[in-house]
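Backbone-to-sequence.
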């Protein structure tokens, strides 16, 4: 015996559309307006495998989510580098004109600190796996540079800042991603590579196949990746049982690390958990559902 709700849940994809429509009333207009303004994203308990379905919504094949995430990061880096190349082309095209129009020249001391800052930005982008390492080209001491060269360098500094700013947000996300994962995977660590997305190494010469990572490692990597790279700003994120397969030490650390991700990406989170270790010191954020005492 089935209730009407159970019929719809079990056989809804086989029922004629007009019957489905007759069984469900549209939400009130004010509720529809509210829903349309919220980007809501559910991270389910089953997050290690991505299922593909056939025309009848039956599972036809599957892919490891961690492999899919690596390909996603590869696409994200490629997109950001394309934007970087576009603004570089635009600035390079107008570079000679802007040098000739240069007015007041930045003092030599200012140029020195600005060039040092750019070197640090490039190093951070290289460390994040976004830019390839480059051979260092030695510059003459700025105090010995004449005014014409100083004018060129001044425009160069401003242009380079604009170019690197395009990659700044992605750099912050990647460096936080690496920090969070490397702290858990030690002695293994994540290497971001723009050609493959990311890999996990145990040493500079030994890669760990992604499918060989433990379920806890895959859960943590997939979850943090989604939160950092696949969500829109100001979204509402629903996470079901984030503690799945996680070591107790990782559970205790989860909320504090989640707060760091939220500060960077600016979204709201609702967690459903059974883990007192995960809640830990954050009891002020907890809303109990139902009676947890068993009589």
């Amino acid at each position: 015996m089935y209730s009407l709700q159970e019929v719809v849940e079990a056989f809804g994809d086989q029922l004629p559309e007009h019957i489905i429509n007759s069984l469900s009333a549209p939400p009130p207009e004010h509720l529809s307006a509210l829903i349309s303004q919220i980007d809501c994203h559910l991270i389910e308990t089953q997050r290690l495998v991505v299922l593909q379905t056939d025309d009848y919504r039956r599972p036809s094949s599957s892919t490891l989510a961690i492999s899919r995430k690596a390909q996603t990061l590869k696409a994200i880096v490629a997109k950001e580098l394309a934007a970087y190349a576009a603004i570089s082309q635009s600035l390079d095209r107008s570079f000679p004109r802007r040098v000739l129009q240069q007015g007041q020249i930045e003092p030599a001391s200012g140029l020195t600190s600005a060039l040092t800052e750019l070197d640090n930005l490039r190093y951070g982008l290289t460390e994040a796996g976004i830019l390839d390492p480059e051979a260092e080209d030695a510059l003459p001491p700025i105090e010995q540079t004449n005014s014409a060269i100083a004018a060129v360098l001044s425009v160069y500094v401003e242009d380079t800042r604009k170019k690197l700013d395009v990659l700044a947000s992605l750099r912050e996300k990647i460096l936080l991603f690496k920090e969070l994962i490397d702290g858990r995977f030690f002695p293994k660590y994540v290497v971001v590579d723009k050609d493959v997305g990311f890999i996990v190494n145990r040493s500079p010469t030994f890669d760990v196949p992604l499918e060989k990572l433990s379920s806890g490692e895959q859960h943590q990597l997939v979850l943090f990746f989604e939160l950092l790279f696949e969500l829109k700003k100001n979204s509402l994120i629903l996470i079901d049982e984030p503690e799945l397969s996680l070591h107790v030490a990782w559970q205790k650390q989860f909320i504090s690390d989640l707060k760091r991700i939220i500060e960077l990406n600016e979204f709201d989170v609702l967690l459903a958990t059974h883990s007192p270790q995960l809640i830990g010191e954050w009891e002020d954020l907890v809303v109990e559902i139902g009676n947890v005492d068993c009589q």
